[in-house]
């Protein structure tokens, strides 16, 4: 009698599908709704022990992208319109939705590309980040639809995946730049956006951003923890390593004003980022 019940379930309750194959499939989804669903499914299946801790396929260089939004270089992006105007308001929500859409792929790629060389906790953490980003995107797209727009209605800027391409060979560089610079930047700027949403009578939008800010503190913390562990494994001093990697791989500048309380809640010490610019 066969021991196999359904679809090659092994002793750990894992099915035959590797976590890498499931992540790759989610990355390659181009339809936003399908990517959200696939991402949430990977995170859930992993959490429930249904995916094998196996990295047998490579991650794509470029993830799937929908036909719209049209992706433009940052200097060709149209002006957002007057602050406070309906057009300007929608353009801002659209830009944030695009950041969250790319953040889904950044988190999936982190887990799928580097998971093999890291501990299980790394995959746990970044698949939970990917699921959060999927929810952030879905909330923002719904918010746009309530305003009569939707994700894809406006152009979006094409530079957000650059950080991933630039750091695709080095997990320490990826951690230094994506969670610890880009997502940390979100902690700095989001409180002002929340205030602005409230000021223009958009409490629902403000609540979405509050939730995002809370989640992003955790995302930065995951990045900082795994970066510290990686530095230790490499026998490198973490602050120096971070500064070296950021100056080598990040083209922008790390500059104030910083949200010191959110950064410290995320485990980023002042000594790490102050005085880098
Ligand atoms: Fe997010
Ligand atoms: Fe995030």
Automatic annotation (TrEMBL):
Q: Do you know which InterPro entries this protein is assigned to?
A: DUF455, Ferritin-like_SF, UCP012318
- Top-level lineage group: Bacteria
User: What CDD domains has UniProt attached to this entry?
Assistant: Ferritin_like
**Chain segments annotated as transmembrane:** none
What protein am I looking at?
Ferritin-like domain-containing protein
Annotated region (Disordered), positions in chain: 59-83
Classification via Pfam families: DUF455
């Amino acid at each position: 009698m066969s021991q196999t019940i359904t679809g090659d379930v092994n002793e750990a309750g894992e099915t035959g599908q590797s976590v890498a194959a499931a992540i790759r499939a989610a990355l390659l989804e181009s339809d936003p709704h399908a990517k959200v669903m696939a991402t949430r499914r990977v995170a859930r299946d992993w959490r429930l022990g249904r995916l094998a801790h196996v990295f047998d396929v490579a991650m794509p260089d470029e993830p799937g992208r929908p036909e719209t939004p049209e992706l433009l270089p940052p200097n060709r992006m149209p002006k957002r319109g007057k602050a406070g105007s309906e057009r300007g308001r929608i353009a801002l929500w659209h830009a944030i939705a695009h950041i969250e859409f790319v953040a889904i792929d950044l988190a999936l790629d982190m887990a799928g590309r580097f998971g093999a060389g890291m501990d299980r906790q790394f995959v746990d953490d970044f698949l939970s980040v990917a699921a959060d980003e999927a929810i952030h995107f879905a909330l923002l797209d719904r918010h746009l639809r309530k305003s009569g727009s939707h994700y894809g209605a406006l152009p979006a800027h094409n530079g957000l995946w650059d950080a991933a391409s630039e750091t695709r060979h080095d997990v320490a560089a990826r951690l230094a730049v994506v969670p610890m610079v880009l997502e940390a930047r979100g902690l700095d700027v989001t409180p002002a956006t929340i205030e602005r949403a409230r000021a223009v009578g958009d409490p629902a939008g403000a609540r979405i951003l509050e939730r995002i800010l809370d989640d992003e503190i955790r995302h930065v913390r995951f990045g900082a923890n795994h970066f510290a562990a990686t530095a230790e494994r490499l026998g490198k001093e973490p602050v120096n390593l971070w500064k070296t990697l950021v100056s080598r791989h990040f083209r922008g500048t790390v500059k104030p004003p910083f949200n010191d309380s959110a950064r410290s809640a995320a485990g980023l010490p002042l000594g790490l980022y102050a005085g880098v610019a």
